[in-house]
Structures are given as structure tokens and as C-alpha cells.
Amino acid sequence: MSTEAVVTPPAEGTQDAPWHHLDRRMLLIRPVLDLVKSLPVLLGALLFGHGEPWQWVGLAFTAIAVFTGVSHVLTSRYRITESQVEWRTGLLQRKHRAVPRDRIRTVDVTSEPKHRLFSLAAARIGTGRHSSGSRHKDELVLDAVTTAEAQRLRTLLLHRKDAVATEAAAAPPEQLIAAVDKRWLRYAPFTLSGLAVVGAAVGTVYHFAHELHFDPIQFSLVQAVVGHFAETPAWVSVVLAAAGLLVLVSLLSIGGYVLSFWNFRLTREPAGTLHIRRGLITTRSVSIEEERLRGAEIREPLPLRLAGGARCVAIAGGLREGKGADKGGGLLLPPAPVARAHEVVAEVLGEDPAATRLVRHPRRALYRRLSRAVLGVLLLAAALYGLAWLGALPDWPWQVALVLVPVAALVGWDRYRGLGHALIGRYLVTRSGSLDRGTAAVRSDGLTGIVVERSYFQRRAGLVTLIAPVAAGKGKYRVLDVGEADGLALADRAVPGLLTPFLTGDRNRG
């Protein structure tokens, strides 16, 4: 009587781990997306080719794009071994990429509408390196996996320690830190995000109208609107246009807030990980290991600050920074009451160093800000006056620039009011800015050093700027225009012993 040997399949996370394919349901989506991307080339070839070979070129280009997308889905495979994540793809040109698991910092899970049709998601596995030359080499994008598989990858790659996993098994599932409140919609118009949408739409329409040699004035509706404004006084037209633009920007900002931040939840998982989920149509899930957290920053752009609002951003290693705090993965709180932002900082860091009373900077810093703000406007007014004197411009531009001098002085004064710093326990706190004020609390033990910077005018004023480099967030945070003695003492306290030889040498020479 013979017995067959039982073959145990290799386990996930071992050296002989099995290979996984992308979800085949993506084949129903990818060809359509590639066809839409190639539509301008295809239409151009069909409309302007006139039977020439360019039509076949357009068709061939479209066919190659669709074939490339389909082959990517069919040939892409990935696996997770004990030491790395491997990814292979390619039919004619094969690619093999591997990322060491101990260098993985983030697993960003995004589910766009194209994915949500079939309960799919895209998992972006990154190491946190931001250099342009190595960004794609240190990042793997699995753009067609199930939602459950994406969450499994996130847990497997970020929660690597057995001790943490054992502790997580006995702990509660997760702790809610913050969730979006419908009342926070009142802050959406003060983010001015709708202004960017209006600008982009106007630029796109103008571009296409210019390319097609099309004059919008030909429309009767446009003619009626232009005629109505021409018959009304200029100041009334300006007020009506400003009010209409304000309403449009506010509505678009509210829509953008709903799309970006609806269903926002910030939770703490038992494995020591902050989990951020947000989005209405396109959902996004980001995890931040608390051991890689280096601090937090409260951002208060001027309109949002006037409304009593702020947003909170994590300073953590491995997060991709975007244009604006809400574009990156480290958003801890969308625009909300400033008191709520401080509560989130206290909950995440265990304390709220950003709420501490900061040390004011010398009055010489005020003079620098006033002179730079006012001098810039005066130089602009002088340039506009010169163009008006030459007949290239009318007189009103340089007159308007002169009117802005008091406004520039007010901004300079507000920039000085925003300056401040402190060293609270293990956190270096710095605040600066007027139009976009930020208060950053960075762990001093996470700093890679301190840079003392002085320009010619700062030397004359007895001021210095401290630059605190950190492998997280923006990469460096500045303490602007602090007194020379106070700045050197602050640097020595933030990174003990770093500047001691230089300070001792100065004292000896003195």
C-alpha cells in the first residue's frame, strides 16, 4: 500500500513565496483607458490625414498603446519573500524590480472610480526616498489588486514585528482619533481650492479657443452679458464680477472638500500605526508607523486663519510631499477648527508643543520684514511708472501699486507677529509666515544637525537663521531671523554638543 507524499505549498513571506498576478478584471478597464488617452492622436490622424499614411500611424499608435496596457496586466506578477518585495512585468521587454522590506516606509492604497467598479485598488509601495533619479526605482505600484489584497499587503509589509503582532492580537481593533464633521464644510470656501479650478478651466478654454481660432464673443449669450456690463458703471461691474467669482469659487471649494475629505477617519491601530482614510469618489488609505513620526505641523493659510480654522499635517519619514499639505499622504486633519487641530496634535504626539507660548524675535526682524515688503512694492511701482512714461502702459497700474504699499506694510508686520520659536522637552517648535502660516513641532532627536545661516544684511542686523534638517516632512524647518546669541544657544540646546567647540573657541578668542 503506497502513500503519496503531501506537498506543502511555500508560505507567504518565505524565500520561496508564491507569485501573485494582478486582478484579471482590470482587462475590462485598461483597454478603455488607453483608448481614451490615445483619442486625441487617433482623431487628429482621422480628421487631418485625408487618406494619407498618417491615418495608419494614428491607428498603429492606438493599437500599440492598448496592447501595452493589456500585456502589462497579463504579465505583471509580484511576491513577498522574507527579505524583499519582487515585481516582474513585460512581454517583449522584461522588467524585474525588487525593494528590500526593511526599507519600505509606506503602503498607500488608492481606489479610483475605475477601480471601484470591480472593488479593486492600487497599492503604492514606497521607501520614502524623494530624489527624482531614484523615485521610480524605489517605488512599486500594483495598480490592480482587490481591496482585501491591498489591505493584506499593507498589514504584512508595515506590521513586520512578531512582538507587535502579539500585542496587537490582545489590543482593541483600533482607536478613533478624528473623523470629519459636516459642520467643517464652512471652512471649505476659505481654502480657496476652487480658485485653482477656475483658473485651470479658464486657461483650458482659452487655449482651445485660441487653437481653433474661435471667438467666444460670437455667442449671443456672451454678447448679452458683455453688453450688460458695458452699460453699467465700472465699479458696479467690478463688484458684480467679484461677487460672482466669490460664489463660484466657494461652491467649487465646497465640492472639492466633499470629494477629498468626506469619510475622513484618523485611527490608531494596535500595532502602533496611524491609519488615514478619506475620499468620496476616489478613496485613499495611508498608514504611518508611529516610530517614524518626527512631529506635526499646523498649517493656517490667511483666509483659513481669519475664519478660525487650520489643518494638521504629520512630519514622518517616507511620506510623499505634495503641493499643499492636503496633497501629500500625511494629512492628519482636513480644514477644521484650530482647537480641534491642536487636539489631534496632542493625541498623536502625546503632547501639544505647537500650543506652547513661543519666544518673540527681536525688533530688528520686524524692520527686515517691513523693508522687504514695502521695497518690493515700491520697485514694482517704479517699473510700472517707467513703462507708463514710455507710453507702453496707462497710468493706473503704477497708481494701484502705490495704493498697495500700506497693504504690503501690514503683511510685513503680520509676518513678524507670526515669528516665534521654542524648545519644549524633546520638540523644537518654529512658526513663520503670514499668507501661509505654519507652526511645526519637530523632535530634536530626529534632527540630522543644525545649520546656522547668515546673509550680509542679517550680519549687519545681528540676526541668524537656523535650519533644522530632518529626514521627514519638508526635509528642513527654519527658525527665521532670531538674535545671534539666542540662535546659537537654541542650536546648542536642540543638538547638544554640536556647536560647543565653536562657541568655546569664540569665548576663548574673546
Description:
By secondary structure, the chain is of the alpha+beta class. It folds into 4 domains: 20-158, PH-domain like (Roll); 184-261, no CATH class; 265-360 and 419-509, no CATH class; 363-415. 43% of the residues lie in helices and 24% in strands. It has 17 helices and 20 strands. It has helices at residues 30-37, 39-48, 54-75, 113-116, 147-158, 162-170, 193-211, 220-231, 234-261, 302-306, 338-349, 363-389, 396-403, 405-418, 456-461, 484-494, 500-509, and strands spanning 20-21, 77-80, 84-89, 95-100, 106-111, 120-126, 139-146, 175-179, 265-269, 273-278, 283-289, 293-301, 309-316, 331-337, 420-424, 427-432, 436-443, 451-453, 463-469, 476-483. It has a 7-stranded antiparallel sheet, with helices on both faces. It has a 6-stranded antiparallel sheet with strand order 14-13-12-17-16-15, sandwiched between helices. Strand 16 (427-432) and strand 17 (436-443) form a beta hairpin. The radius of gyration is 28 Å and the shape is globular. The N and C termini lie far apart (97 Å). The model is unreliable at 1-9, 131-135, 161-170 and 322-326 (pLDDT under 50).
Descriptive key words:
seven-stranded antiparallel sheet; six-stranded antiparallel sheet; PH-domain like; globular; 510 residues; disordered N terminus; alpha+beta; 4 domains
Chain-wise SSE layout:
Layout: E1 20-21, H1 30-37, H2 39-48, H3 54-75, E2 77-80, E3 84-89, E4 95-100, E5 106-111, H4 113-116, E6 120-126, E7 139-146, H5 147-158, H6 162-170, E8 175-179, H7 193-211, H8 220-231, H9 234-261, E9 265-269, E10 273-278, E11 283-289, E12 293-301, H10 302-306, E13 309-316, E14 331-337, H11 338-349, H12 363-389, H13 396-403, H14 405-418, E15 420-424, E16 427-432, E17 436-443, E18 451-453, H15 456-461, E19 463-469, E20 476-483, H16 484-494, H17 500-509
Antiparallel strand pairs: 1-2, 2-3, 3-4, 5-6, 5-11, 6-7, 8-9, 9-10, 10-11, 12-13, 12-17, 13-14, 15-16, 16-17, 18-19, 19-20
Helix pairs in contact: 1-3, 2-3, 7-9, 12-13, 12-14
